[in-house]
Records
---
Amino acid sequence: MKQFDYVRPGTIAEAVAAAARPGAVYLAAGTNLLDLMKGGVSRPDRLVDVTHLDGLDGIETLADGSLRIGALVGNADLAHDAEFARSYPAVTEALLSGASAQLRNAATVGGNLLQRTRCAYFYDTASRCNKREAGSGCDARDGENRSHAVLGWSESCIATHPSDFCVPLVALDAVVEIEGRSGRREIALDELHRLPGDAPERESALEPGDLIVAVRLPPAARGFAAHARYLKVRERTSYAFAVVSAAAALRIENGRIAEARLALGGVAAKPWRARAAEDVLRNVVPTADAFQEAAWRALEGAKPSGDNAFKIELARRIVVRALLLAAAGTPARMPALPASPFASTSGAIHA
Amino acid sequence: MPELNLTSAPAHLRHGSNIGQPLTRRDGILKVKGQATYAADNHPPGMLFAVMAVSSIAHGRVVSLDVAAAKRHPGVVDVMTPDHKPQLAIDPDIKTNPFVFRMEVLQSNEVRYANQPIAVVIAETLEGATEGAALLAPRYEVLPALVGLDAGESYVPPVVGVGNPAEHHHGDVEAGLASAERQIEAVYETPPQYHNAMEPHAIVASWDGDNLSVDMPTQGLMLSLARIAELFGVTHDKIHIRSPFLGGGFGSKGLMAGPPTLGIMAAKLVGRPVKLVLRREQMYGPVGHRAPTRQRLRLGTDGEGRLTALDHHARTVSSIFDDFYEPAADASHTLYAAPAIRTSHDAVRVNTGTPLFMRAPGEATGSIALESAIDEMASACGMDPLAFRLKNYAEVEPMTGRPFSSKALRACYEQGAARFGWAKRPVQPRQMRDDAGLLVGWGMGTATFPALMFQAEARAAIRRDGSGVMEIGAHDMGQGAWTALAQIAADAVGLDIDRVEFKAGTSDLPDAGIAGGSAHTATAGAAIHSAGAAVIAELADLATNDERSPLFGAGNAGVIAREGRLIRRDDESRSESYAEILARAGVAEIEARGTGAPNPAAMEQYAMHAHGAVFAEAKVDPELGQVRVTRMVGAFAAGRIVNPRLVQSQLFGGMIWGLSFALHEEAVTDRRSGRIMNANLGEYHIPVNADVPPLDVITVEEHDPHVNALGIKGVGEIGITGSAGAVANAVWHATGVRVRRFPIRIEELLTQR
Amino acid sequence: MNHSISLTVNGARRDFVLDDPRVTLLDLLRERLHLTGTKKGCDRGQCGACTILVDGKRINSCLALAISHDGADILTIEGVARGDQLHPVQAAFIAHDGFQCGFCTPGQIMSAIGMMREGQAGNDPERVRECMSGNLCRCGAYAGIVDAVLEAQAGMDETNQRRSA
């Protein structure tokens, strides 16, 4: 790990000033950053430790019914907040399906939003990677790429965003509050992460010094609590990144879908909001056929970036299943295996 | 002085004593308190940290290293490179015996595989050494990398595994296939796998003049000692190795490899103690792995499902500079009674670290292919897979016609099937679902592993106070040598286990051979048994020749040793304690040595194997393709069980490795660069707790008078065989999709709805 | 630049000067405080061998900078037993053979203790498996680990019932 200056600012303003300098990065829990630094992927000159800043670790309901989650709230603390789980069950399920209990205890909400891709060529500093080193090339494009993007990728970059947490958040129109050199601003989470285009090194809408201070769920997000699920297919039963995942949330009124929300994970450089699929579900009866139609819409424009054509079909099937699960209703208790296809495996076997 | 004090478990944790008893681990308290000292836990005064820099190319030459930049980094003391290193006494590429692993110890600038050590940075702090290694920023002359099973011209290796011929046959396979009513041909692929013991390879080395002190996990203390001695040109008596605990080995700590050698060199270079620990990613190269295979099986059966021929060919790889060949096809030698069997191997050379034995080398890779093919053949015949296996049950070893020294496989099949409920299995696939709609499949596999014996020695002593001592340089890599061997030792000297000081894990003790081949308990146990018998015989001589003893005149054969006393066989009222015998004789301690070794005459006469039957239930999401094993039952017959608790754990572990083989493990190599792209525990998947279902192990009673004095066959590796195939077959039975490339991946199961 | 930090480690306050901000909690414990019970299996948060409790919560100490945890209360495997009196989880690991080589064991035990404090798994074996999935065991002692945790949990439930009765 490269030597760095360690700075522990006393205020948000000091933090922003300290982090605006070239070579500076924020340190929250460090569960991703330290991993990257140990691998030589990230070699910052200065770490601005924001973990001791006051006022960033609260969960509060605002007057308009929004929920504001401080950037330093721990992933596990948020997931274990009973009121939160009742109101936003798909978010809780996504949180609990990510990483391990130890990592969830350490990791923060703000940090999770900014976790970097798991693309092996990004991690392997001997490989060419446009994201790690602008203009160097992409060795993933013709490499071992069965887990790479099928939506929104470019010839410059086929990496995916690995977060589970972000997937239901983006479905629920989460908003990110940012403190920057020119003060406080907010943007939709859907606009925080960028698709690669020809500049995959620019991963987010953040400017130097920008600090995520909170994530906000708008009042409407609570309206889906009765029908919201996160589903994640992975190669181990637990402690694995998604091959593909989906968050589905429905507002069902009088047997019809009044409003649907759908987002996919593991398919693109950002959590992928599937608005076209949401549109076809408006005012329809929740049936498998309707969900099939939505799945086709959700994957419109998908194309393999390598040995990963299966992910398109898998994504369609996950969409259908996630919608079916959501339509069936949020379970009263979090399943033992959150977000797993095996979440409810018990009971008799029959021919 | 013993270097390790094992605290006895509190009485409530004790469940008995000596052979056959399910004693809890005697090293358990140390391990649960974090007091068990693994190599990297040592920190002698003045110690420096050494960190390897490894190659990012798979083939070529290092043309420059920025040594100056590394040396400028705070705390860096020295940088060991091909131009700046202590000289070795011999060329490390010379094979002085078959158990020499060629190693990279900076003998040249040549790069033979990715992750090869190319320099070592030594610093006052771990952080300094780590960054120093990064600052070396090597530049390379890159040559094309040879990657994969089709990398070049294939050849037939002279031997596979440890000294087996590459080809075997009995009967006429082509004629057998030609005459068959049904034939199948199938090709299976298995990936490169890495041992990934939880403990990374580590060494703490200190030189004091010519004397070398080493803390290092090793499965072969004396092999390591001999290799260090020849490399550094010092005599054996100058070297002391401590390896009281291994944090797992699985074969990767069997032979002296480059990295620990570099640690010893670094200590010599700087004249201070040095600790060198591999980073996880550095374990994917210089310390062995399981080679990939492509196996073609051809099977023929007559109209009643009897095999007429079995042809098993395996393609594998070795490195460009050394030879180890995964003997995958040899798995077909022992299990099924075909009148014609042929096994053959060929190989290509690739830019990889040299493959090595990894838990059930050959047996594991071969077993998943063979058990899949048997399942396919059973299905082709419309037969239940168990019925098919029973139809082709080998009453004698098929390749040689030798009788088995013992073989309780039929009982394994029966007991395992009954416990699992196999009889209710529909023959056709994709017939069962659970309440949640998941596909359910049941599969089985036959397990087998040879009952091997190596060479070992032990020293036993009885002390004046009546207590015993047993010394053997045995290795505990998790299998439980500290407990199981102590149980054997206690019985061997007729004492309660708490009255025997059991010493193991250091190189100054008698040679216990290698902890491998599932033979350590048998081999070391036989040596302990024989040393114990010898020291008791001496003690009996003292007593029976002394007219003051109540045992006078009983003769050696006339006494037995029990609970610290010698007792007349014909009159149990006449006995004398060890302490009394020694006190009267005025002897402080008597000692004797014993050996354990294979019995060539018995081996000539009998085929010696452990057997088992594994049954697995897998659930598969019908649309999403994700697989979960939900139940496994294994019934194993492996001779005498020294400690049922530890044996169950070993078998559980093996079954989990089988599950992992079928569903999880695979090193992904970039086909262009030859670099392994998932050299970490996040993406090289081994099962996590949630992947492992409730497991059930049955140990079937088996008495074997031929394998060794104690009748022990070994259980370290057999669990993986059979299990891998059982899981793969369960996935087929659930889905109707036969996947022949392992591990089974989601995309292969998406083909059908 | 030197940084003064203070930690409570297994109940004892430790003040020291950190000469390098790169030092992780894991390396601090192992190489500077010589508390080597906590193990380094991967150094990247992927195996759980380095699990310790920080302010009562289980985390991977390999991915935590010591300097950022100034003031933290740390519990490692060395601080779990009271002399010869094993913690119930430790005793249960021995009784159920919840380990073989023992290298992952300190992390497993710390994780189990942390998990029981979190209270999410209770006595449901499936939840225990899920909640213990951050601790890899290559020997394959998972069955014993789950049984050990369930036994310790049952013992704790019983104690709590007795207390409340």
---
Amino acid sequence: MLEINDLTLQYTADFVESGIIRVLDGISFYLKKGESIGIIGESGSGKTSLGMAVMGLSGGEVSGEIRFGGVNLLDLTDEEMRVVRWNRISMVMQNTGNVLNPAYTVEEQITEPITKHGLDSKIGAQERASLLLREVGLDSDKLNAYPVELSGGERQQVLIAMALANDPELIIMDEPTASLDVLTRRRILGLLDRIKEERSLLVISHDASTVASLENLIVLYSGRVMEAGKTDLLLKDPRHPYTRDLLRAHPFMDTTKDLQGIRGKMPTLYDLPTGCRFSTRCTQKIAICEERPPELTGCRVRGEDGSQDGDGGTYRRIACHRGGIHTLLQVNSLNKEYQNRSRNRSRTVAALNDISFELQVGEIVALVGATGCGKSTLAKVVTRIFKPDSGEIFYDGEEIHAIDAKRFHKDVQMIFQDPLDAVNTRFHVLKIVREPLEIQGKIEKQEMIRKVKHTLDEINLPSDDIFLKKYPHQLSGGELQRVTIARALITDPKLLIADEPTAYLDPSVQAKILKLLMRMQNTRGMTMLFITHDIALARKVSDRIFVMREGDLVEQGVSSDVIYSPKHVYTKELVYGAEGAAGYIYKSIRS
Amino acid sequence: MFGKRLIEYVIAFMALIILNFVMPRLMPGDPIDAIYGNELVALTPELREQLRAQYLLDQSIWSQFLHYLYSIASGDLGYSYAGKAPVIDIVAGALPWTILLVGTALFGAITIALFLGIESGWRRGERLDRYLFAIFSIINGIPGFFIGMILIIIFALNLKVLPAGGAITHYAGYTGSEYAIDVARHLILPATALCVSELSWIYLLMRGGIISVINEPFIKTGMLKGLDDRTIRYRYAARNALLPVFTRIGIQISQIVAGILIIEAVFTYPGIGYLLHDALLTRDLPLIQGILLIVTISVLAINFTMDILYPRIDPRIRHV
């Protein structure tokens, strides 16, 4: 019913070198009769402009096609377009204070489009207004209210009633739940569910939960579509890094990880990157990403039951040169055994038993398990400290043992449990931190010191000469662990493996170190494998959780799923055990 | 709300009456001298006493005040010796002319200014708007009496098509429609002068008002509803832009009154303003006092009416 092809909207602006500001760039999607679609994106992504363009009120230069019921709306005259508005497509504008005309009553504003379009007499329109008001859940005594007399939620209801007045086939809603409290919001969302049974609905929102119940979803960024697909699958398994980051920033009720914004800023519309619009913030960009913008192409995604979609892979469309979120580390069937010698008998212990997993660019995965379950062994195998008995490990598509050692360790760094074990105690801070740089190769001394100081600054350590000349025994545990973090970060690694980095620290220092690690992960866009025995800690840090038990990887999943609906018996034990412990502590504090 | 407003106005009214009563009494010198200073060359002590008694100046201040209130209530504003008639009669003779002049001029000014302001503001930056804005910005800088003088020079002195002053042709004995035409002919120039000088600032205000609401979301809502341009311009933009304009007109009423007084003087139009001008020249104190009382009461009454009307225009006011 609504089919948008290559829609581009630009404004002329003389303060820009190019003279134009492109707000929408090559947008294409379609909406079948009776279907619903959501458009999400940050503020300034062009969502509202898109709605306005469909209504023919965006101004500027519009090119492409907006087909509605077979007719290209862009070909219509102003007069013809006026008839389309409200009669066939209506729009609920964002619910700001002055969205309704302050000088007229609710009734006058609802009946106005009915009578002005000549659909009914004044009396007929008034009857309809009162009916509509009840339909959206308001008392009909609100008919005589002026907009100032309405609460934010009531105003939203009136706006929706008004949009229904001329019985349109399609309703566009701009941020229908923004700035509403939870209960009002639920009422409005219920209303949307009812409305979409009878007509097509296009909902614009920055809030993923508002559009969650719609059938289709489009993710807009800087005027381009980044990802499009079925809403439920898209929210569960975003394939574009932007979608994932956007959802990560959203406080869903079951979010366990601390919220993180998307690093960097959206590019201004008059200074767009030549390549992918998201390249300035993306954690996995390569050369081509900065050269030309990616096309929106189909990709295969797994359905609810894990099956590949049957539609020939066009189910989900993403615009990414790397084909969506990139796999940084792939581990296939890893095995490692230790010989345990006691007296004369030797026993083999499986430290790693057929371990397979993937790490994606820009995510934090927590590896949880009891002491001696093989976590540290896994870390050491992945960082090439140990060799596995069998199995393959691919870093960025290459088998790790085939990668040049220098290059590998530039990209993959590790933080150890006990910082004193991890540093040469005869080195001072400067020497500890700069060591990886020296290994990497020739670098000027001044440049090296500058880098060391910069890194120390970044992680909130002093970078003066006195501190640089301190030895490990002169530092506190927290400071020393920070020094090892600085050492790990100085080569600008892409994968950071942190093995119980806070085990020896008190909770306050631990919290600070974790915040620091998360901040560094976010700003640098690293991938992080965070090893811990503490599942309560894991849930606050990680996007996904892996659970290990005696060499087996028994469960892996999105953190909230693992915490709220653990599947494996052992995971359940861990989660409930942690809850029990917390409950005990809580009780003892109370009593 | 309404009651509270009324009380405020009653207080203002009382303050006005008291001021009007006290002010002449604060003037230095003998009030008899002040009143008759120019009229009587010599004043015998007996005559002076007689006058003091006539003006109740020998009584206590409270008794004077009560008597003053009683007089005002019964329509007695004193006696004008220069005009040789009771003040109330002189004022009553002049008032209709002023009302005619002000009514015509303001009606014209407001309708034209609002219409032009709306159309001009809606077409901001277009040719029509640029011309209107330039013209009225210039006129806004010219005082009303100057406009009046220019009109007199062009239409009365050079073209000789309209009378230069007065409200009627005396001793012409016109009746019926002839009389009406004569009055209208006399009215054109002063009314135009007043109209033009008030028109410009109302226009500028209305234009600014439209420009300030043109980007309000409800304008977009109106467009989205597929309403025609005129409906949006008037029911959406103008209706909401009118509120500050209306307020300003209310505030400016006293300025407008001052403008009228000068215009009437320029055109020797026999209204209140010209009367005040005369009274000032002849130092006719009772008349001056009477006129000021009437003028201030009128201003008060107009403001009160505006206050009552305001919530009808702006529903938001009811909830403040």
